[in-house]
Design a protein that fits this description.
The chain is α/β, with parallel strands linked by helices. Helices cover 30% and strands 22% of the residues. It has helices at residues 9-15, 28-41, 60-67, 78-86, 103-112, 122-131, 167-179, 200-219, 245-260, 276-279, 311-315, 405-409, 417-421, and strands spanning 23-27, 49-53, 72-75, 94-97, 115-118, 137-141, 148-150, 153-156, 184-188, 223-227, 269-272, 283-294, 298-302, 321-323, 333-338, 347-354, 362-365, 386-390, 396-400. The longest helix is centred in the middle third of the chain and has 20 residues, at 200-219. The relative contact order is 0.15. Bound molecules: pyridoxal-5'-phosphate. The site of pyridoxal-5'-phosphate (PLP) has 17 residues, from helix 10.
Length: 427
């Protein structure tokens, strides 16, 4: 599918009068339409809830939009819990799906009334010692080991993943929890990431629904929900077909009726913890070409770098690039698009075919709405960019200001670098 930017060159030129590049910008309309489509796709399940994976895009202005569509939050750290609570998503609208969890994080999760999703059987004891009790509702994360495959395609390698209980541990864990007075049980699994296929959720759902039936039969634990977690992907490359969420919902419904319905477990709620699917396509990193370099290769130097978007440097991930104002031109020039870090992997694209680019052109780096800004860091003393929201009426709102050097130096208590380094005023 052709990838089109949701901003134009004219709009970006207008925005940069107030907010200089680089910045991340989010498309409110796209976020809303997608959230509504997800809600409709699972509306057959009365208990259905999406717990947005906060780590993907931890911005309260954006999470507040999702809240209007009934979304809760999936948190995995202290500050993510705080953020969720601050936007008014509380209690059982928070799923705390963490791992290697510090005691203080379990304490805050319990204090907020979040549903706790245990990553390991030893965490039963740890949680009980930490809280002094066990909550009435608990979930356990399942890891079947081996490879997760669909037909002949290997999708991912759970056997090599640090997460979750083994199958045997699920049964043992549920027996222990039940004996300790837990009343409502959940099952969670995240077995493949960024799946651009309509089959992942239905295949996963089938496995988890069957496990739910066995667990309930063998342990007597009442299964309240099955959490399909994240993993529905987005088409980063133009040749990929986007997932059809309506079809995915429908196929999960078929598995639900076949397996849970016929086992008399038609009261089980289906939960999701999508991150990438909710926000990925609705964010752009906007950057300006500030240098062109002609050496052994042709380089375009832009004013963003890997601290603004780590995925290409970290995973070699493809992110599509549109040169704004040149959408109609032939892509007959080959470039490496680089940032300014002292790291040779700081490249947004390698050997990318683009139109002939002029210094001063603006570029959109696509699909940065999830795991984009949030994976940012401060290497080379680079500062985090602003985040902007493009409203449906075309207006633009600053939803997080850019960092300043003062922010960067703020944690050196008692050593006021920022003030010392300010140029002395003469006269
Ligand atoms: C990262 C994560 C998600 C979201 O994953 P996406 O690929 O963004 O959908 C959901 N649940 C858990 C526990 C995660 O770690």
């Amino acid at each position: 599918m052709e990838k089109k930017a949701f901003v134009t060159r004219e709009l970006v030129e207008e925005i940069t009068k107030t907010y200089p590049t680089p910045f991340h910008i989010y498309d409110e309309r796209g976020i809303r339409e997608n959230a509504e489509a997800l809600r409709e796709a699972f509306s057959w399940n009365p208990g259905y809830k999406e717990f947005f994976a906060v780590k993907a895009t931890p911005n309260p202005f954006l999470i507040r939009i999702l809240k209007e569509y009934g979304c809760g939050c999936d948190c995995s750290s202290y500050t993510e819990l705080m953020l969720s609570n601050a936007v008014g998503i509380k209690g059982e609208d928070i799923m705390f799906s963490s791992n290697d969890t510090p005691a203080e994080e379990f304490l805050l999760a319990a204090e907020l009334g979040a549903i706790i999703n245990l990553d390991d059987i030893t965490h039963i004891d740890f949680l009980e010692k930490t809280l002094g009790y066990l909550p009435k509702t608990l979930s356990c994360r399942f890891n079947p080991g081996g490879y997760f495959s669909m037909g002949t395609d290997i999708m991912d390698n759970p056997g090599d993943a640090k997460y979750g209980f083994t199958r045997e541990q699920m049964f043992e864990g549920f027996r222990i929890l039940k004996a300790k007075g837990v009343e409502h049980f959940g099952i969670h699994a995240f077995l493949a990431s960024n799946t651009v296929t309509n089959e992942y959720y239905p295949v996963l759902a089938r496995q988890l629904f069957e496990l739910a039936v066995e667990l309930q039969r063998q342990t007597g634990a009442h299964i309240s929900f099955v959490n399909l977690s994240g993993g529905i992907g987005i088409p980063y490359t133009p040749d990929q077909e986007p997932n059809d969420i309506r079809l995915i919902g429908e196929k999960v419904r078929e598995a639900y009726e076949e397996i849970l319905g016929s086992a008399g477990m038609g009261d089980v709620a289906v939960y999701t913890e999508l991150g990438r699917f909710m926000m990925g396509p609705y964010g752009h990193l906007v950057t300006k070409v500030i240098h062109q370099k002609h050496t052994h290769k042709e380089y375009l130097g832009v004013d963003a770098c890997a601290v603004n978007l780590m995925r290409p440097a970290m995973y070699g991930a493809y992110h599509h690039i549109t040169v704004l104002g040149r959408e109609g031109e032939a892509c007959d020039h080959k470039y490496d698009v680089t940032g300014s870090l002292c790291e040779n992997n700081d490249k947004f694209a390698i050997d990318r075919m683009l139109p002939e680019v002029k210094t001063g052109d603006y570029m959109v780096i696509h699909d940065t709405g999830a795991h984009g800004f949030s994976m940012g860091y401060n290497y080379n003393g680079k500062l985090r960019s602003a985040e902007l929201l493009l409203h449906e009426d075309g207006s633009v709102e600053l939803i997080r200001r850019a960092e300043t050097p003062e922010d960067y130096f703020a944690t050196f208590d008692g050593f006021d670098i920022y003030k010392k380094l300010l140029p002395e005023k003469s006269g």
